Amino acid sequence: MDELLVVTTGGTIDKVYFDDKSDYQVGEPQIGRILEELGVAFRFRVIPILRKDSLHIDAADRELLRATIASQDARHVLVTHGTDTMVDTAHVLASIPDKVIVLTGALNPARFRGSDAEFNIGTAVGAVQSLPAGVYIAMNGRVWDPARVRKNVAANRFEAI
Hints:
Layout: E1 3-10, E2 15-17, E3 24-26, H1 31-38, E4 43-52, H2 59-71, E5 76-80, H3 86-93, E6 100-104, H4 117-130, E7 134-139, E8 142-144, E9 149-152, E10 157-160
Parallel strand pairs: 1-4, 1-5, 5-6, 6-7
Antiparallel strand pairs: 2-3, 7-8, 9-10
């Protein structure tokens, strides 16, 4: 892998909570800081394009994401995304040929102790380097085909369908 392209869209991974009532906003992308702190042995570049909860990502946002990734030379792409509509976005990105695209996120903000963010990012980084061209989702210690996974909201995890 020459360089990992990271495209951020917001989601829980980047959320910042302000008080006990869980008021929040999507903050600055956390993945660059996380990768630097982990001392990764590869070059990466972060392109932040959205700062939205995935429930607010619409068709125009997905097209912007698809066009941004398609216009870049990088073959290996990691996308941080909210978990609620991650599968929908993965289906849109499937039209991009000759790239390995892995979407990941977090069920708890990266700033929280015990967040799954670092684990999911680590899984996604391993996946993006080892899989053939296509689109994948890396969550809960697994790498999923977007056509065969869904988020189980009640259990707060991804599972096969």
